[in-house]
Amino acid sequence: MKNNFKLFGIVVLIAAIGFSVMSCNNGSNNGTGGGGLSGTWRGTIQGQTATVVLTATNWTFTIHGLSDQGTYTVDGITARLFSTTFGMEIGTAVLLDSNTISITLNQNSDFPGTFTLFRV
Question: Are 41 and 119 within 8 A, CB to CB?
């Protein structure tokens, strides 16, 4: 009977470790959900203060009285930004570290280029 309790304890321990590994975030956040990208980010774009707010699935970009918004999908540390204003993908956001993102806006946006923003 004592050996059965030891065996049961070992099985429970292995199961707990297995479930912990399976539920662990491996850095990939495929689909929606901002992960480390969610938050308010600020920086300078073409001499103007820009603010980007990323929630779990949406983003808002504001600069010099202009704004745009949309949704995004995440693959690892990269988000693809889709504009509801323009009806198409306008760029990407890459998490460089916990306080810095790099935003690359393509020619479909009003401010094409690559910009660094910092968590507020």
Answer: yes
Domains of the chain in sequence order: 35-119 (2.40.128.640)
Task: Decide: 118 and 41 in contact? Cβ < 8 Å.
Answer: yes
Residues 6+ apart with CB under 8 A from 110: 66, 68
DSSP string, 23-64: HS--S---BS--GGG-EEEEEEETTEEEEEEE-SSEEEEEET
Query: Which pTM was predicted?
Result: 0.68
**Is pLDDT above 80 for 39?**
yes
pLDDT tens readout for residues 54-112: 999 999 999 988 889 999 999 999 999 999 988 999 999 999 999 999 999 999 888 89
Rounded to 5 degrees, φ, ψ at 45 are -125, 120
Q: How far apart are CA 79 and CA 86, in angstroms?
A: 17
